[in-house]
């Protein structure tokens, strides 16, 4: 008699095979540890007479928040069992003026957080990048060998592992590495601070530190070897959404994106920090070709920004600390889902205990099968067609790492939609205006129809009464 497997057994076998090929990695970013939080409060943007034990929305992170984040990652990794690595995308130093810090102080902070990660996750490699605030003076990333590159290269030698890549990092702050359990995958940890508009050292350079040439060589080698590539770094090339802020110098942005477009068949995803907000978008040519996904993870710091715009002084909304874990296919590198975790800072301070909890998963929140370019485009297509209000509302809420509904005005929704598909600020601004016209036009048609129906109703009522 032929032995026929039952459906439950087939599904169990499939799940076993699938799990064997599925890996995970953490993405943590923007710790912004403020060693003065309980004293001078040098990072705080307002008076904080009673600083909470785990932080305050006006300030950068106290050590308790940094340690709590790392401890949660370690505990969750033990429960998941298949975490292969961590990406740590910079800005470990607080928002403190250059007058009140130094390179030695910044390096001490980097050593402290590195030691915390090494202690909590001793068998998990961390692929780290520097952020603009890690440099001294702040934002001034040099395009050549420097003291910070040498010191941090030595500090991260065991994680980078390759002597030649450590040497490369010490000359420009970037490196490539293989990924554990994924032989067909490599990771590029970039120094995008070289292209940041606050960096006065590189404004007139065509290819700071030769990183563009190096990226293209790495991608060309990966393509020839049949490998896929994950790109990480601190400052993202895409527009901040909402708000549509451009972080890159125009020439650097054009060169960087051209490389991504040309090798979109090799790049499975890009991951950045810097924004402090949760977000995702597609970087693509105007005709939609060469598309690459960009994910920005929310910060650990809850710090609220204060900044000046043409409209006057602006204050950023309060947001909670967050960290995420990404699921990926070890064979193909394809990204499957991510799970965003957070703490409610207010409750945490009241309870004097950090209760990390899942905020959402990408698949569940946006009704998509994976994290691919196609899935992201599908989300924005729904938004364009007027069916996506629930998704923009979720985007607004998750952007602030909140389980509570947050305001999401029409302009903000337009910026989410346009910034999610367009990398050029002028085009995105124009897109927002078109979006608002379309929304207002729809509202007027709906209002006119409602008035017409009301008139018909009143006429019928009057006729029947007569």
Automatic annotation (TrEMBL):
InterPro entries: ASM_C, ASMase/PPN1_MPP, Calcineurin-like_PHP, Metallo-depent_PP-like. One of its GO terms (cellular component) is extracellular space. Residues 292-436 form the Sphingomyelin phosphodiesterase C-terminal domain. The keyword Repeat does not apply. Its cofactor is Zn(2+). Residues 24-277 form the Calcineurin-like phosphoesterase domain. This is Uncharacterized protein. The chain crosses the membrane at residues 443-464. Belongs to the acid sphingomyelinase family. The keyword Membrane applies. It comes from the Eukaryota. It holds the Pfam family ASMase_C. One of its GO terms (molecular function) is phosphoric diester hydrolase activity. It is found in: Secreted. Keywords: Glycoprotein, Hydrolase, Membrane, Metal-binding, Secreted, Signal, Transmembrane, Transmembrane helix, Zinc. Gene3D superfamilies: 3.60.21.10. It comes from Elysia chlorotica (Eastern emerald elysia).
